[in-house]
Amino acid sequence: MTLKNRISLLVSLLFTILFGLASTLIFVLYSNFRKDEFRDRLEIKALSNIKLLVNVKEIDNQLLKMIDQNSINKLYDEKTLVFDSNYKLIYSSIDDAKIKWSIDDLKYLKKHKTFFKKQGNYEVYGVFYDTNDRDFYALISATDNFGQRRLLFLRYTLIVSYIFFTCICWVVTSITVKKLMSPLNTFHQKIKNINENNLDTRVESKSNKDEIDLIANEFNFMMDRIEISYQRQKEFTAHASHELRTPLSRITSQIENVIADTKTSNERKNFLKTILSDVNQLTELINSLLILSKIDNKKHESNEVHRMDEILFSAIENLNKSYPEFLILFEIEESDNIDTALEIKGNKNLLEIAISNVLKNACVYSDNKQAKVVISTQDNNLIISISNTGNTLNENEQKILFQPFMRGKNSKGTSGFGLGLRIVQRILTLHKATITYSIPDINTNLFQLFFHF
After folding, report:
1. To which H or E segment does residue 115 belong?
2. Which position among 305, 341, 374, 416 has the lowest Cβ density within 10 Å, counted as fewest Cβ atoms?
3. Is the pLDDT of residue 283 over 80?
4. What SS3 state is found at 325?
């Protein structure tokens, strides 16, 4: 799970839990408030009935009717019972509601003065009233329909609001976190695209100096140091390779002169030819390292348009001069946009080096010194397909095919250093192009160069 999703989930869960606890607390507090308020109402009604009985010396049916009909605090399903000090019922309201009571309840009242309990749907309140000459016990029960309806309304309101605001919280949190984390997405994309050809990439930082800006600044400082070190390494490689070329050229010339001398014996000539072959391989290696060290975006950027077929013809011609035994078959597939696709912006010399290296690689590692080149177009891409027949690479070799000094098992008995395809990849990356390797058929190697147009 990404950091963005984890933050969204944690914040949303925190709000959900807190809002759930707050809703539960509100409901419990209001439920207790309703209970206390209804108990107070029952207490007032019970005490008013007792005081009315105390102030009236004689109780009759008219008095009972007056108490029931002229009550100020009329309650729903109300039932009132009043007992004297001998636990004798002296007053009962004239409704059909019933109160379950016992002598133990009245004794409990005398000891604790009051009690409040629930009997089914009814709530019962008991109170002990002590006068100078007489004691009274009052039990009153009723149902708080109005309070229960308000409590039920509050419950549904809290549930609906909990679901509604929780959903809003999850959506808003997700959008907010996504917006806040967008600089990290940009940061990630820039880091992912960094390679040896664009070490000058930097992450833009704002002036608010938050954690993301601090990371961006430190990253930029790190890239400065890496770029400086990389440039120094490239400069050292370029200078060293350049300095090595001069003495190697002298050695080559001297060996060639000795070989050409008629006084040199055939045995010495064969020995010197072996040394000359090794010197030529060393020169080729140094030239490859020099090319790798010089490939750079800024130095080799070019907006000049060149036709890839002309570059390909030139590469084939130069390759045939050095390797006349190579045979390269050429084919262009006709399409409506082939002329437009063949026009590529870039550095002509580098593109020719890349094409030459792939062609040479195809011929050298073929079983008949032949390679086939097919130019085609597909999905706004110019595709140069170079294939040969011969031993193919296994899966592990294919994964590291474009790494420096990589040579497969099929290279046994063939001279080389494993830098040619690395140079090709670097040049194509510079031109925003790609190269792939595949095995379309048995003992068939296929390299495809993709140029977007």
Report:
1. strand 114-119
2. 305
3. no
4. coil
| Mean pLDDT, residues 379-387 taken together | 90
DSSP annotation of 85: T
Task: Measure the CA–CA gap between 79 and 366, rounded to whole angstroms.
Answer: 109
CA 180/CA 174 separation, integer angstroms = 10
DSSP 8-state secondary structure symbol assigned to residue 418? S
pLDDT digits (tens, 9 = 90+) for 346-357: 888 888 888 888
Q: How far apart are CA 356 and CA 313, in angstroms?
A: 10
How far apart, in whole angstroms, are the C-alpha atoms of residue 54 and residue 47? 10
Whole-angstrom Cα distance, residue 295 to residue 291? 6
In the structure encoding, which two tokens stand for residue 439, read together?
């095995």
Is 392:439 a contact under the CB 8 Å cutoff?
yes
DSSP state of 417: -
pLDDT tens, position by position, 255-277: 888 888 888 888 888 888 888 87
At 322, list the tokens. Answer: 């050095």
The confidence score (pLDDT) of residue 72 equals 45
Segment 324-330 shows an average pLDDT of 88
* Rounded distance between C-alpha atoms, residue 438 and residue 393, angstroms: 9
Instruction: Tell me the average pLDDT across 2-19.
Output: 85
- Which range in 101-105, 180-184, 232-236, 295-299 is most confidently predicted, on average pLDDT? 101-105
Residue 388: Cβ within 10 Å count = 23
Angstrom distance (rounded) from CA 436 to CA 427: 14
Own/partner pairs for 96-101, CB < 8 Å, 24+ apart? Answer: 97/122, 97/141, 99/124, 99/139, 99/141, 101/139
> Which secondary structure element, helix H or strand E, spans residue 25, and what is its range?
helix 3-55
**Is residue 102 a contact partner of residue 8, using CB atoms and an 8 Å limit?**
no
Position of tokens 């606890």?
21
